[in-house]
């Protein structure tokens, strides 16, 4: 995988080669790459390949069959099915070739046959038509820009648009970023001139128009009901095995970022059980000074259970947020909340790199796809299961150290009045405008299901991690964000995900005997809040002047004095509504770097 970009002159005027050269120069942050390019008439295409997958292309050029040409950033996970469906003899066919043959047979309907992480563009030189598509969950990005009579596209905004010295921001994008607590929407960008092809969508570009069609979205009405619990376990285990196995496919070693939590250890256990031919190692962030964040006891139990010798600990006490501010993160085309923790992210990947990894697996999004949220207890009440409701409410209260009355008031009564979602950092009028832009999710009446839908919808916040990993020649992959797994978990009954206030019920059943009991039975997570407090204290002298007159306040999005007060309180160890204010902090710092 890697990156793609290109230009199509819709007026069919031959493309100036300098346009393509400029794009290529903007993509120089990719290392250990192979670059392919194609230019003919009104079209120019570039593909940057990180050489992660096993299958090699037959010659050093853009892939084409007949009049069709393709550039792709992809990994296809259902190759065997497609090879059989397309009656292909060569089992070593590359993923882009497989996509192209699928398109030649099914045209735009090909996206319904593809499973995996992908973004690609196909040029039909005979009909002068460009076809672009993005995978179901939006794991790989695709940005585009209309410029006079040209359609420009790229997986990195910098290839098609200047990202510094900006005077005109897309304030809807900025507001949505804050409304969703640091999770950007999937159709806009910070720049009004640049748009994003939404996840689960394709575009058809002809000399006269640009058409965008949504081919997939998560169906909140679909239900999967089995007669007995074991059927759910078997189905989940089958999908989970496949999700892990396919994400280990490649021509190099695999590093697994393994904490002491249930998600990443499950991926490691499944990877070991599958006996994949690729070498496996683990990378774990541990803490010598901050004992409340250290999970070595869980990690060590896991390593001992599998007699794993190829493991690596990254002592992370000194990787506080905003370290070396203002030079705390790499150049980014978009804001990303994880940029605050760049030091830990970068050094984790650097350790994987030094150990020869070409692929990194994470437990990211396990929380999101299993959908834990306290509003789940309302589902029992809506189904008139009063005994189960009381039981779950009591257990939830005990787990959160709340009174039963407080739990019922905030997680039940307020939901019926639609008052359970707290206000955001946004000014009230801006908050209300954002709510109106996301009306689709408001159609889901059950607050527990709506929160689960939101978690999945907002789970692809991976820009910084992709930027860091691919700059080191590593591809990061996330088994829990397999579309088949996501669809299954969203459609099964609540009790298979949360029961007796215990989360990830199905995962725990599936991993029985594969994980130490200490991990299977644990609840809660280790806290790394001390890295936040330490970072604000250590970098405050340089940081505080930047927050006195925030651009976000000048744009009419937030109350600047309230913002500064909240960050100041964080510095002193008082953390409330951290997700949204830290998202605002990163967005503000990013805006200051990119504003003229």
From TrEMBL:
Question: A single Gene Ontology molecular function, please?
Answer: asparagine synthase (glutamine-hydrolyzing) activity
Enzyme class, spelled out: ligase
Q: Which of this chain's residues are annotated to bind L-glutamine?
A: 95
E.C. number(s) listed in UniProt: 6.3.5.4
On whether Nucleotide-binding is a keyword of this UniProt record, the answer is yes
| Pfam families associated with the record | Asn_synthase, GATase_7
Pathway named in the protein's UniProt entry: Amino-acid biosynthesis; L-asparagine biosynthesis; L-asparagine from L-aspartate (L-Gln route): step 1/1
One GO biological-process annotation of the entry reads:
asparagine biosynthetic process
- Spell out the SUPFAM superfamilies in the cross-references: Adenine nucleotide alpha hydrolases-like, N-terminal nucleophile aminohydrolases (Ntn hydrolases)
Q: Which residues form the Glutamine amidotransferase type-2 domain?
A: 5-208
Query: Keywords on this record?
Result: Amino-acid biosynthesis, Asparagine biosynthesis, ATP-binding, Nucleotide-binding
Q: What highest taxon heads this organism's lineage? A: Bacteria
The family database entries (InterPro entries) matched by this protein are listed as: Asn_synth_AEB, Asn_synthase, ASN_synthetase/amidase, GATase_2_dom, Ntn_hydrolases_N, Rossmann-like_a/b/a_fold
Q: Reaction catalysed by this chain?
A: L-aspartate + L-glutamine + ATP + H2O = L-asparagine + L-glutamate + AMP + diphosphate + H(+)
Family, per entry = Belongs to the asparagine synthetase family.
Its name, as the record gives it, is asparagine synthase (glutamine-hydrolyzing)
């Amino acid at each position: 995988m890697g990156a793609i970009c290109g230009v199509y002159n819709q007026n069919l005027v031959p493309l100036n080669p300098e346009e393509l050269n400029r794009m290529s120069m903007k993509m120089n942050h990719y290392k250990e790459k192979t670059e392919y390019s194609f230019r003919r008439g009104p079209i120019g295409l570039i593909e940057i390949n990180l050489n992660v997958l096993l299958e090699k292309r037959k010659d050093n050029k853009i892939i084409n069959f007949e009049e069709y040409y393709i550039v792709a950033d992809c990994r296809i996970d259902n190759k065997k099915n497609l090879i059989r469906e397309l009656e292909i003899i060569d089992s070593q066919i590359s993923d882009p070739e497989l996509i192209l043959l699928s398109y030649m047979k099914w045209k735009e309907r090909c996206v319904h046959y593809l499973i995996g992480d992908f973004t690609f563009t196909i040029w039909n030189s005979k009909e002068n038509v460009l076809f672009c598509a993005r995978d179901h969950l939006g794991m790989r990005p695709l940005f585009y820009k209309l410029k006079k009579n040209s359609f420009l596209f790229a997986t990195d905004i910098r290839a098609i648009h200047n990202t510094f010295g900006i005077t005109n921001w897309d304030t809807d994008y900025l507001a949505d970023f804050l409304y969703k607590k640091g999770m950007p929407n999937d159709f806009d960008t910070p720049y009004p001139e640049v748009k994003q092809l939404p996840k689960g969508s394709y575009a058809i570009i002809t000399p006269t128009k640009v058409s965008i069609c949504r081919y997939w979205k998560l169906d909140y009405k679909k239900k999967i009901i089995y007669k007995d619990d074991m059927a759910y376990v078997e189905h989940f285990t089958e999908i989970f095995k496949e999700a892990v196995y396919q994400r280990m496919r490649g021509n190099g070693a695999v590093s697994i970022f393994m904490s002491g939590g249930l998600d990443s250890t499950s991926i490691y256990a499944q990877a070991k059980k599958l006996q994949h031919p690729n070498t496996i190692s683990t990378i774990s962030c541990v803490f010598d000074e901050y004992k409340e964040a250290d999970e070595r006891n869980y990690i060590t139990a896991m390593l001992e259970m599998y007699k794993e010798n190829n493991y690596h600990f990254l002592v992370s006490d000194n990787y506080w947020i905003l370290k070396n501010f203002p030079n705390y993160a790499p150049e980014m085309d978009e804001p990303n909340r994880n940029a605050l923790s760049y030091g830990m992210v970068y050094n984790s990947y650097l350790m994987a790199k030094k150990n020869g990894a070409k692929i990194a697996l994470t437990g990211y999004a396990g929380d999101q796809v299993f959908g834990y949220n306290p509003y789940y207890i309302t589902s029992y009440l809506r189904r008139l299961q009063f005994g189960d409701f009381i039981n779950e409410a009591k257990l939830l209260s005990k787990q959160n150290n709340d009174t039963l009355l407080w739990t019922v008031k905030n997680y039940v009564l307020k939901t019926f009045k639609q008052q359970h979602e707290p206000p955001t950092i946004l000014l009230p009028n801006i908050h209300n405008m954002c709510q109106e832009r996301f009306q689709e999710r408001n159609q889901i009446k059950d607050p527990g299901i709506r929160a689960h839908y939101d978690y999945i919808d907002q789970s692809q916040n991976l820009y910084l991690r992709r930027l860091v990993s691919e700059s080191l020649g590593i591809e990061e992959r996330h088994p829990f964000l397999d579309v088949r797994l996501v669809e299954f978990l969203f459609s099964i009954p609540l009790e298979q995900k949360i029961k007796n206030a215990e989360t990830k019920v199905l995962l725990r059943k599936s991993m029985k005997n594969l994980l130490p009991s200490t991990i299977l039975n644990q609840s809660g997570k280790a806290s790394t809040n001390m890295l936040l407090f330490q970072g604000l204290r250590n970098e405050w002298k340089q940081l505080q002047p930047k927050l006195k007159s925030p651009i976000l306040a000048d744009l009419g999005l937030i109350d600047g004095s309230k913002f500064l007060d909240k960050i100041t309180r964080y510095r002193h160890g008082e953390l409330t509504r951290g997700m949204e204010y830290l998202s605002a902090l990163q967005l503000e710092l990013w805006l200051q770097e990119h504003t003229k």
